[in-house]
Amino acid sequence: MLSQPKTLPSVVRRMTAGRMLLDGASVEVVADALHLSLQTVRRYKAIVSDGGLDALAKMGVGGRASALDRDALDWIAAALQGSAREHGFESATWTNARLRELIERRYGVRYSRVYIWQIATNLGLGHLLSKSRR
């Protein structure tokens, strides 16, 4: 089974979604409240309907280990909590593309847009990424 640290923000959010669904919240309300896609919440709802919160808790977080160590993740978290301008971007807003570029400049690794979002989410800072693609 894949590792699944219970305190990882993505796992906490998944379990919160499951509890909200069990309490009767609609898929749309859960998706909006937790910044999840409708497709993800529908998948969680199906899992909860079939096996309850235990089934949702058993979902792994997947993927291989990141090339970024704890110090790198701490630096990224600090960068996200500041202005993108401090890192040479034309406005203060953080976007997925800007974070991707910053990580590539600083650490020499290029990640997919999905993994960039996952990094920010796992740091508890996904909400700071603008929906803009620039």
From TrEMBL:
Q: Which domain of life is it from?
A: Bacteria
Database matches in Pfam families = HTH_23
User: What's the name of the protein?
Assistant: Transposon protein
List the taxonomic lineage. Answer: Bacteria, Pseudomonadati, Pseudomonadota, Betaproteobacteria, Burkholderiales
